User: What shape does this take?
Amino acid sequence: MSNDHERRRQDHGWEVLLAAGIIWVAIDVPWELKFGAHELAVGKVVSTLVTLLFAADFWIRWRHLFSRRRRAAPTAAPRESLWWLLVDLPGVIPIALFGGPVGWLSLRLMKLPRLNQMMRQWRKRDVHNASLLRLIFFVFWMLLIAHWIACGWAYLRDPMPDDDDPMYYLRALYWTITTLATVGYGDITPQTAPQMMYAIMTMLFGVGLFGYGIGNVAHMLANIDQVQAHYHTSLDRLANFLRYRKIPVGLQRRIYDYYTFLWERHLGYDEAIILSELPEPLRIEIAVAMKREFIEKVPLFRGASPLLLREIAVELRAALFTPGDYIFRAGEIGRHMYFISRGTVEVVGEDGQTILSTLTDGAFFGEIALLFQCPRTASIRAIDFCDMYSFDKDSFERVLEFFPEFAAFVREEAERRKLALKL
Ligand code: CMP
Assistant: This one.
């Protein structure tokens, strides 16, 4: 599994490197087409490195396509076909070295769909930040297109008398941005027919881009609101139900408190329901990941083997309690044992008055009734909002059976508590 993880990380690193190469090409090609090959050594070095990168990528894909050991190639290659290899081919030819015509460079832009494909994959993989990534990629494409349009404008228009290349480009970019953003100061205006046609197309494109941009941002905000809206809808439904059932106001208040707590700590998600919908291997992994922080907090689990931790993570069920809740009362039949993840409870004696103990984060309770098949020896009352995990009787017995060290520790603590209770 860690091998798999390592391989995915390497693939991701390779993807990022490749994406950087393609981005360089996307920026560099229009520039070179207009302003000619780089004079600075840095530009030449980067161009050569990118060619090498593309060649390595081509080789990997070639091997992936024609080798039986498909696992050897990065998963970065999403759709392997001869077509994609052909698309990659121009990128590998070191045009600058051969002194080939600069126009050939534009063939390298054929790699751009690959960049788009990678961005889509990243968005799919990083579900959590999908909306944000969408916005970032949108801004990236927008800036890239502005750069292309600026190079095109520079191509159509002669430079001002004193302009060097960077100033010439800057002027073109300034015109592009003011036109695309529909600001249009009018200090640089098209003079010839081709310039006018170009300006019209840029303006139309700018209007479309503007609309699409606003739509994108609105979509992202709507996504954030969706979670809030879900919360309010569930609360409305609950309020209607409670009114319809004529539930006493005090109890209603506690139910609302519970919902607010569930919302604040868990964004309204019920772990158990979400986990129950997943296939088992994934469920186990997620259970371990979600409960690791809690498990590390419980002294009882410290030093436990990875196997025991896995078993515990799978068997533990989340439970929430609000202040004043009785988790159970003395004399009841015991069906669960609890661990406190966050919060504080009081152990209340059989008389309902005496506070025997106060338990907080990492402590456990409810083991006596399960171990000794007796009624609950005390009541447990939550004194603030409590996030807990519980074992049911079967899980508890299974864990005791397979992990004697854990059993011994729980028994020892139970005996100590029974002594304190004078049982
Ligand atoms: P059980 O008898 O199942 O239910 C009540 C629980 O309170 C009991 O298990 C113990 O886990 C816990 N308990 C009882 N006495 C004490 C004590 N003195 N200190 C801490 N916890 C206690």
Notes: Residues 69-78 have pLDDT under 50 and may be disordered. The longest helix spans residues 193-244. The radius of gyration is 33 Å.
